[in-house]
Structures are given as C-alpha cells and as structure tokens.
Write a structure and sequence with these properties.
The protein has 18 helices and 18 strands. The strands form 3 sheets. Strands 2, 8, 9, 10, 11, 12, 13, 14 and 15 form a 9-stranded mixed sheet that branches. The protein is α/β, with parallel strands linked by helices.
C-alpha cells in the first residue's frame, strides 16, 4: 500500500495506466481474517444436491427421481442432509411427514440407483446425526440385519428386524461413512480443488482476505492447498496448522520430523504457510481409532481426529515446546486442564514467542484470563455457535456465569490477542461480528453477559488486527497504512453505524489481496 488518504496523498501515485475506482463514499476496511475457517468445507456443500427446500418426503423423492432420470442405472445419487442449513435445527420436523425418509421411500424414487442422504457434519448442530440409504446402497455396503454397528451408531430396524435404511449416530465426529457406508462415493482430489476455488470466492465476497486453520488440516487437504497455490488459484492468504497423523505412542518419532519444517513460523510464503500442530486434549479414543484407520480420507472434517489422555497430551505439548512448534488446542471443555499443562511447560521452556493458541475459547473466569495473559497465549473464539446459536443452552450446560462465556471484553482489556472465527457454521464473519457485539441468544433473545460485549470497533479490530497477529502478519497486515499490504474490502454499508440486525447481511463490493482484486460485485 503506497498511500492512504485524500486526493493530496493519493494523486501523486496516479498516472495514465492507473485504474481509478470511485468508491462513492463507501466504507473501506482492512481485509478480514477468519480465525478458524474450515474454508475448504464451504465449497463442498455445493457439490451435492441440496434438500433445503424439501418440505415433505415427496419433495425429497421428486428431487432424487429427477437426478435418477439423468443418470445411468447403478450410478450413485448422494445428497446433502435433510433440513435447512446452516444449523439443520429441526429435521425431520421440517418435513410435513414428521419422520425421516426410509429405504422404501428412496427405493420408490430411484429403484435402480444406490441412494444416500448424507448426515450433517456434527458440529453444524449436535448429535444425534441421521443419514439414510436405500436398498441398493445398503446392498453395496453389505449392511443387513446381521450387521453390527460401530460404537455410537444405531441401525434402525423395522418390525421384522430388517434395516430401515436410517442410521443414527451419537458420536460428535461421524464414523458411518468410514465404517458401515464406506461404499458411498467420497470427495475426490478434484472435488476438493473445485470446492476450494468456490470457497475462496464466497469468503472474498464477505471481505475475508485471510484464514487461519488452527484445528489442523490432514495431508489430503494440504495437498489440495499446495496444488491450488501451484496453479495460481490461491487467492486468499491461508495459514494452516497440521493434524497429527500419528498415534500418541508414535509422537516421539513424529514430532521432530514435523518440527523440521513446521516449527517456528513454518514453511511457505505470504499466500500459503504451514506452521504448528493441533494437539487434542481428551477426545473419544474409539472414534479417533476409526478415523485414523480411514486415512487419508477425512470426509467433511478435513482434519484427522485425535484423542489423547492427559499424560499423552502433556508429553506431546512439552516435546512440541522443546522443538519450537506452535501448539493449537481446542479448549471448549478443557481450558483449566490445558492451562495447567501449558504453565508447567512454560516454567521450563519459553513458549510466549511461539504464540500457542487456545482454539474455541469458550468459558474463562477472570483468574483464567489473567493466566492466559501471563502465558502470552493467543485465542480464537466462535461467537456464532456459542453465543448466538445456542448461548443460553451452553450456559445451562456448563453451569457457567454468562460473563465468563467467551469473555471478549476481558480479553481486550488484558490486551490478549484474539481473533473471531466463523468455524464455517455459517461462513459469515459479519454474523460473528454481530454476535460478539450483541451477545444475544438466537432462540430466547436473552443477552448473555452484557459486560463482555465488544464495541463495534473492537469487534472489527478482532477480525483484522487480531487476525493479523494470529497469523504472525501484524507487521504487514491488519491496518490500512502506507507500507502495509493492500488487503482491503469495500463494504456495502457501514458496520460501525448500520442497524445491528442489518450487519449480518453485509457484503463486500470489492475485495483486494496484495493489491489484486479477488472479488468485485
């Protein structure tokens, strides 16, 4: 960025080759950083036919019947889940039939095709998760009345004991397609490449210029990012942590190998950088075992699910510190335990410079916020899910003072760097902005912890300056000033002054990354 200001500051840099865009008084901001994006997932949703407009099983059948008419017999038909995105709050209540489709319903629509209605990604709402297969799909998968489901999965049966085609999964991370329904067509490398292109387009249209993936990415997804970058198709700036592909007992061998290239600031450039790891505290060991054995495929996740005992986590985190690896850990339900481990490590090995990151910071008391400050840790928060979508339910579930739930104002007051995240549910940073400003529960309308509300300017700062710090780019990005990268967005309305109910609908009219236009309305 060469100059910022009015005509006097800008005109000296203009010549006859310069493209001039009259913004007509529009609001210009630094590019936004989605601090926990799962950006690749957005485009995947549009690869499959949506059932969002289906209001009955007959509607579902009509959609599938239309697909079958255009496909050769035996060719798979796979759809998105029943219900309406982004949260799929009321299936099958959203259908007039008030029940899930069964194999018989799907057979009637496409008797000569295997059909599978995917379940939601569990974090879009919460378990149980339902998916449905027709008779041809069950036959190809080898599922019958004698099939024993994996832990956490039910195969619903009719009165005669035959599968109805409906699977019910109680695991937070789904395993049906890695076990019983492995026969279902999977997202391919080309699918993921196409989805990443589409995802970037959609994110840029909201003013996002950079993302951080602290939840980690799997090798199959890293390959997609690298190929996209090599083709010149990576329009946004992406900073990626790695998913452990190893078991805890293999960490002593694996971590030094990873640290050789992902340690410190990692490897890459200002468009694609890979640095650090995501280490899980706790988790479901059986689910992790199943999904580790399913590698390299990761389905919706894009990361490899792991599970560690407290001792395994502490040992891996200590080794990561010794090797100079940045650690990211999801602390939705385990902040006290993780802080204790990090403090024990920091007493022996400096970690402040590594910017260890508390992902999904959810509940933190004033004392815990002070401990985070002393550690020099960084945080990412998900106000859409844990304040707006289900804040009142979360407060009751964890028995927390609402002022301790995602304490944004306390983080800002302690000058703890933090970024706001969408977690791709949905991929709308302005909804995250509004949730952090209002702290209003979507269902009840109640305000949760009003003292922890962010001002609009502070929320915008979290999406820009906070995101730049998170991605170790604060020297180059996050503000509009001469010498900084020309990452910016021209908005269709003023987020600091528009009615808050309108802010979630905000879009970018023009988005630039490094001075290159990546979106123009």
């Amino acid at each position: 960025m060469l100059a910022v200001g009015g005509d006097r500051e800008v005109k000296p840099w203009r010549d006859r080759h310069t493209r001039v865009v009259d913004l007509r008084g529009a609001f210009v901001i630094p590019g936004l950083v989605d601090a926990h994006a799962h950006m690749d997932r957005e485009g995947l949703k549009y690869l499959l036919p949506s059932l969002a407009r289906c209001r009955s099983i007959a509607d579902v059948q009509a959609l599938i019947r239309a697909r079958a008419a255009k496909r050769a017999p035996g060719e798979w038909i796979v759809t998105m889940p029943v219900g309406a995105p982004p949260f799929y709050l009321d299936p099958p209540g959203s259908l007039t039939d008030k029940r899930w489709p069964t194999r018989a319903d799907l057979d009637a629509a496409a008797p000569r095709h295997p059909v599978y209605v995917r379940g939601i990604w569990g974090y879009w709402n919460r378990p149980p998760v339902y998916s449905v297969a027709n008779s041809a799909a069950l036959a190809l998968a080898g599922v019958d009345r004698h099939t024993v489901p994996p832990s956490g999965v039910e195969i619903l049966e009719d009165a005669s004991g035959e599968p109805t085609g409906v699977f019910v999964e109680h695991n937070l991370i789904q395993v049906v397609e890695s076990t019983l329904m492995r026969a279902v067509p999977r997202f391919t490398f080309e699918h993921r490449l196409r989805a990443l292109r589409d995802s970037q387009r959609r994110y840029a249209a909201l003013g996002i210029t950079a993302t951080y993936e602290g939840h980690g990415i799997a090798p199959e997804l890293l390959r997609v990012y690298r190929e996209s970058h090599a083709r010149g198709e990576l329009a946004l700036r992406c900073t990626l942590a790695l998913s452990p592909t190893w078991r805890a007992e293999d960490a002593a061998r694996a971590l030094p190998e990873v640290a050789a290239w992902a340690g410190g600031r990692g490897l890459g450039d200002d468009r694609l950088r890979v640095a650090g790891v995501c280490l899980a505290y706790g988790g479901d060991a059986e689910v992790a075992r199943i999904l580790h054995e399913s590698q390299p495929y990761t389905g919706w996740a894009g990361f490899v699910e792991s599970a560690n005992t407290p001792e395994q986590y502490a040992a891996q985190a200590a080794e990561a510190a010794r090797l100079g690896l940045r650690v990211n850990t999801l602390v939705t339900r385990c902040l006290p335990e993780v802080l204790e481990v990090w403090e024990a490590i920091a007493a022996k090995i400096p970690i402040r410079h590594l910017r260890w990151t508390l992902v999904h910071l959810h509940v933190a008391t004033p004392a815990q916020v002070a401990r985070i400050k002393r550690l020099g840790a960084v945080a990412t928060t998900n106000p859409i899910s844990y304040l707006w979508r289900s804040g009142a339910m979360e407060a009751a579930k964890v028995g927390a003072d609402a002022d301790h739930m995602i304490p944004h104002a306390s983080l800002a007051r302690h000058r703890i760097p933090f970024g706001l995240a969408t977690d791709n549910k949905p991929a709308n940073p302005w909804l995250a902005f509004a949730a952090a400003v209002e702290r209003r529960d979507m269902a009840s309308g109640s305000v949760l912890g009003p003292r922890e509300r962010l001002t609009r300017l502070a929320a915008l700062r979290a999406l820009t300056v906070g995101g730049a710090w998170l991605t170790c780019a604060e020297a180059d990005r996050g503000t509009l000033a001469p010498g900084m990268a020309a990452d910016l967005a021209v908005l269709d309305r003023d987020p600091l002054g528009a009615p808050i109910e309108d802010v979630a609908e905000l879009t970018s009219q023009l988005t630039m990354v490094g001075g290159v236009i990546v979106h123009e309305a």
